[in-house]
Amino acid sequence: MGDRVRAAVAEDSGACLGGAVEAPAHPELGAKLEDGVVLTDDLAGALAGCDAAIAFATPGPSLALARAAAGAGVPCAIGTTGFSDAERDELKSIATKIPLCVAANFSVAVNVHFHLTRLAAELLGPEFDAELVELHHSAKVDAPSGTALRLAEAVAEGRRQQLADHQVLARQGITGPRPEGTIGIQTLRGGDNPGEHTVHFVGQGERLELVHRSATRDHFARGALRAALWLRGRAPGLYDMEQILGFRNGDGL
Q1: Catalytic residue among 26, 92, 115, 136
Q2: Residue 197 appears among annotated catalytic residues
Q3: pLDDT in tens, 137-189
Q4: Annotated catalytic residue: which of 97, 115, 140, 200?
Q5: pLDDT tens-digit readout, 26-66
Q6: Is the peptide bond before 75 cis (omega within 30 degrees of 0)?
Q7: Which domains does the chain have, with CATH numbers?
Q8: Active site residue 212
């Protein structure tokens, strides 16, 4: 994703690379990149030349970048999933200091998917059962994906429910009839698939499916750059991608 973000920055006339960070002992540390940037493991040094930061990593390094960004007063867009409740609480605290966007998915189309899923759940009502299926590459470390969980939250929001009270992540054995209001999430893993998410609204004699399939990671990078540019000059706070795109409670671009 770092390479894809660099490519997105290079394609955007309103942006340039200000710094690049990798993990300590990464084999390419010290490499010279575009715009005179040298790849480093020094967070503070990399942020010194930046107006905004973008993180795609596991939760620990993403939090480290967010802390450093808060110390430097640099807005930050984070495309990491799998945060614990305690880590999410820390991100909320960091957002009192800087503009911060934590997105389950930076794709514009996926955020339209969130919006449409919420609307469909509201319009179809409880007569339609909601089931989600997600497929990702075999190296993905968290399950279900953050995008699948956000889609499930969108269903719950449309139904005026709390997701935690209705989600089902596994079924096995004699489960009995499907409980009313259940939101099922099934996880598939394999190959090099960048991401595929399907929401099934299953009624009596009919079914509505909302599907998003990714063929590359470039749209994630372009969305992250769009978010980072939008955050500049904003008041401190925790923003989401739907706000940035103007779908709800935001200005959009």
Answers
A1: 136
A2: no
A3: 999 988 999 899 999 999 999 999 999 999 999 999 999 999 999 999 999 99
A4: 140
A5: 999 999 999 899 999 999 999 998 999 999 999 999 999 99
A6: no
A7: 2-106+217-244 (3.40.50.720), 108-213 (3.30.360.10)
A8: no
